[in-house]
Amino acid sequence: MRRRGRLVAACVLSVTACRGRDAGVVQKNAASSVRPTPPAPERFVSIGRAATAAEIRAWDIDVNPSGEGLPPGRGTYDAGTTLFAKRCAVCHGAKGEGLGPYPKLIGGPTDAFNFASDAKIPKTIGNYWPYATTLYDYIRRAMPLTAPGSLTPDEIYSVAAFLLAENGIVGKTMVIDARTLPRVQMPARAHFVVDDRKGGPGFR
Ligand code: HEC
User: Fold this and answer.
1) Helix axes 2-13, 15-31, angle to 10 degrees
2) Which of 2, 21, 136, 190 is deepest in the core (most CB within 10 A)?
3) In terms of Cα–Cα distance, which of 27, 100, 75 is closest to 174?
4) How far is the CA of 92 from the centre of ligand 1 (A)?
5) Residue 98 alpha carbon to ligand 1 centre in Å
6) For atom 25 of ligand 1, which residue has the closest CA?
7) Residue 32 Cα, ligand 1 centroid: separation in angstroms?
8) Choice among 36-50, 56-70, 135-149, 157-171 with the minimum mean pLDDT
9) Ligand 1 pocket: which of 77, 92, 159 to mutate (most atoms <8 Å of CB)?
């Protein structure tokens, strides 16, 4: 009883501290009948294993807008034209116009950027993508849809050259590689701003 009395007195000083101490008392009493939770093991030895360096390398394939992550290799418009016809046109159309549910990759209006108010405007590489390096990153990890990861670096650079040229962004003679791709200025780049919102009361 006297102990409880001291806790109540402490409450006058700080409600929060009092709650904490009170809760502590309750737990201490309950602990006598409930087994304490054992500390977490340092490793769950029976689940999984450490990934090998080769496995991590195989997953570590992202390419960022600065070009970091782009591998050696080079691609040309001519090689890209052949490859696109063979591996991509069945879904995206011979001219990248998009067949059925498959997206259009070439064209699309470049004079307006009001996608938010008109969802029907087709978003394409030419009118929506802010960074050319995304072509490498995305095609490498996701395309062709039925065999992602099957293209060589030269093939990916080549379809990127084809798609950029057909969208009127680079010339047909431009060699695309780890040095030139990040330098390509995408038409939609200026439509994006860095999101510097911090949240909280200043949220806008
Ligand atoms: C079997 C059908 C199929 C084939 C073949 C295919 N794609 Fe696709 N592609 C898709 C689908 C479906 C999407 C949309 C995926 C999504 O939105 O998640 C897509 C999306 C894309 C996009 C992103 C479009 C955007 O603006 O968001 C690019 C770029 C692309 N494909 C390139 C290629 C290239 C290059 C090839 C050939 C090497 C290829 N695709 C072969 C079905 C295909």
Assistant:
1) 150
2) 136
3) 75
4) 7
5) 9
6) 124
7) 62
8) 36-50
9) 92
Worst-scoring range by mean pLDDT, 4-18, 32-46, 113-127?
A: 4-18
pTM of this structure:
0.78
| Tokens at 60, concatenated | 């570590």
Q: What is the rounded distance in angstroms from the CA atom of residue 170 to the CA atom of residue 158?
A: 13
Q: Which atom of ligand 1 is nearest to the CA of 159?
A: 35
138 lines ligand 1 (CB under 6 A): yes
Rounded distance between C-alpha atoms, residue 167 and residue 105, angstroms: 8
Q: Which domains does the chain have, with CATH numbers?
A: 71-191 (1.10.760.10)
State both tokens at 68.
């970091």
Please give the DSSP secondary-structure letter assigned to residue 47: S
Output the CA torsion 16→19→22→28 (10° steps): -90
